Amino acid sequence: MDAICLKFLSFVWCLFVVVVSHVSAQASCDNSKGNYTSNSTYHNNLNTLLSSFYSRTEINYGFYNFSYGQGTDKVYAIWLCRGDITQDKCLGFLNQSRVTLAQQCPNQKEAIFWTGECMLRYSNRSIFGLMENQPTVELLYTLNVTGSVDQFNEALQNLMRNLTAIAASGDSRRKYATGSAPAPNFKTIYGLTQCTPDLSSEDCTKCLDEAISKIPDCCSGKAGGNVLKPSCRIRFDPYSYYGPTIKLDTDAPPPSPSTNVTSSQGKSNTVTRTVIAIAVPVAGVVLALALFCIFQRVRKPRKKIQIKREEDGHEDEITFAESLQFNFDTIRVATNEFADSNKLGEGGFGAVYIGQLSNGQEIAVKRLSRDSGQGDIEFKNEVLLVAKLQHRNLVRLLGFCLEGRERLLVYEFVPNKSLDYFIFDPIKKMLLNWQNRYKIIGGIARGILYLHEDSRLRIIHRDLKASNILLDEDMLPKISDFGLARLVHIDQTQENTSRVVGTYGYMAPEYAIYGQFSAKSDVFSFGVLLLEIVSGKKNSGIHRGENMEDLLTFTWRNWRDGTATNIVDPTLDNGSRDEKMRCIHIGLLCVQENVAARPTMASVVLMLNSYSLTLPVPSEPAFVVDSRTRSLPNMLSSSTHNSGETRSSESTHNSVNKASITEPYPR
């Protein structure tokens, strides 16, 4: 009798596979997120994006997450195949699925589509890196457990917990686990747990735990069941339904026969239960979305392939640099899960953490805020451009990580903190004698000159200040935060900006008032910074009896009165007096109100290195306290967007509008 029953069940199982293989997978179409019309911009962006997946032949691990378009018409999509599906099969299923989804969800801006092999999901909002539980689809088998239900449930719970731990411990390439366990009167339970790889370990565990908690509601006493969510999946079955997981970068055997998922259709917060009245387990129902790999690869060492040719006596060299991408888990481990103890500081663009790679190299990781309007591909291109900027007085960009909503920039670690840590501290400033300070001034000037005139991109920094000057082990300066405005797509043009961003006190008047910036804006900031280095005083907060005056007022007053030695930091009792006076002179030339009167950085470098060059007489700097009719508060009150900000003499060292402020653009 048992043999007859097994044959009967096998027959029904095969019949089910044949039947479901001809059933189109259903989609969950969310009308609450809005609709689009045929041939609209959103519709065209959606078609373009899904079509582009098919051409991404460099991705061979079955997980695609890209975006396309701008503003409200931007489309975000995820395509995901099971772990035992080859690349060709995966792309073939994609081609079929996008056609079917277009038929079942003809005008919804957000939809999700499951098949037995893959999942397709798109939206008009960012869905990368988010744990989402809705819509939830629950499926059960009508085959009841034989024997003790309690013992079966205990074995099932133990199996799913173990698989959850394995899946959650996976890296960003894969959060997926399959396995089996014996059960009483039921030869084997086959289980699967899986999360989208852009989830953290904690979110993966949370999502799977929530899915497992649905089993008593949907599948109590049943031999098989599935819980399907946008961010994770679980499945248990009395038969093996998954093939060997395909290893990365290797050929794999053909996938096992495909099955389809029955999905709910309606709003995303609707929980649908579908009961399939079949006497055998539905082995093909709701396969776990297997084998996730982020489209970022573990960062490989930069390789250069040089192609040289001789033509008319000239040698052309073409250099190709490989992607500088880091794996997110690599960075997460290096920074000890972005622990507060590893945080070096926090600015407008985000927090900076110290980290150590597995090879012992120390790095600084800037974790950018998540409100950038730039697409992933554009961001990568900009990173590669900025990474090509190399100068001894610039902090070197080693690479980046782009995963879900995470955008990380990886820099060389500069050990001696920033310049403001030394020159504004009454004790630590004595570690910087005049010789060191003069080298720092010269190094900053050369770094800015490189950005303005010698780099591949013309870069206007727009936030030069003491805290953005880092000091290496030899106390040599390195300019940081250059190129960041380009990376986060700040809304501005080459000559003006709709948002005044920067640090009052370092900000040139034409920029603070009218939003007009140029290379001379950086010259102004450099002048303020130079005077801070010479005086050891911040650009705001100099006591004059019971009153306070800003650094420019203090410097101009003493220069005008012939008491320029009062400007020099009293701790600088050694060093050339002429160099100190010349630096003050150059600083005053840089902070003149007339933009045309300020020198270029090329002239500044020449002034610092050539004592035979006669310096012009400086005019009164901008924003001095005595010139109340031209004071910053009066002009800001009617000319800028930054209501409530203080005047330069009262400024803090925080960037306004929460942005650091480099402005690069092509020459």
Task: Give the SSE layout.
Blueprint: H1 2-20, E1 27-35, H2 41-54, E2 63-68, E3 75-81, H3 87-104, E4 108-114, E5 118-123, E6 136-141, H4 149-168, E7 176-183, E8 186-195, H5 201-212, H6 215-219, E9 225-228, E10 232-237, E11 271-276, E12 304-311, E13 314-321, H7 328-334, E14 343-347, E15 350-356, E16 362-368, H8 376-387, E17 397-403, E18 406-412, H9 420-423, H10 434-454, E19 457-460, E20 469-471, E21 477-479, H11 484-487, H12 509-514, H13 519-535, E22 542-544, E23 547-549, H14 551-560, H15 577-590, H16 601-609, H17 632-639, E24 663-666
Parallel strand pairs: 6-11
Antiparallel strand pairs: 1-4, 2-3, 3-5, 4-5, 6-9, 7-8, 8-10, 9-10, 12-13, 14-15, 15-16, 16-18, 17-18, 19-24, 20-21, 22-23
Helix pairs in contact: 2-3, 4-5, 10-13, 10-16, 13-15
